[in-house]
Specification:
Helix content is 62%, strand content 3%. By secondary structure, it is mostly helical. It has one domain. InterPro entries: DUF6804 (IPR046548).
Length: 115
């Protein structure tokens, strides 16, 4: 029997950056209040902008303000004066947002559109 493998008709481009952001946010909790936290803030801000771009490409506009808010809050250029418990609580919340966004942002595969 020769069975053709079915490929999904959509792709989730935001899933991998979402998982990476989740991992960075979990590890980043240990560095809250240190100079290394600036590095983590930079990585999260960049990943938020990457996932935002994938949301725009997939026309999932409702994710754009949420992800841009994360990019602004975690930006290292003009940091907000938050400290301690705010960052410790914000890390898993933002991680959940990245995970959910990565799972839900999908767009049709280019080869599936042509069929």
């Amino acid at each position: 029997m020769n069975q053709k493998q079915q490929t999904p008709s959509y792709q989730r481009n935001a899933l991998l950056p979402g998982f990476i952001a989740l991992a960075v946010l979990i590890v980043g909790v240990a560095f809250v209040g240190t100079d290394w936290f600036t590095v983590f803030r930079c990585i999260i801000a960049i990943l938020a902008l990457i996932v935002t771009w994938f949301a725009v490409q997939a026309r999932h506009w409702w994710w754009v303000p949420v992800l841009l808010a994360i990019a602004v809050l975690w930006n290292p250029v003009y940091p907000f004066g938050f400290s301690g418990i705010f960052w410790i609580l914000a890390q898993p919340i933002a991680g959940s947002v990245f995970l959910i966004a990565g799972a839900l942002i999908k767009q049709p595969r280019p080869d599936a559109v042509r069929r």
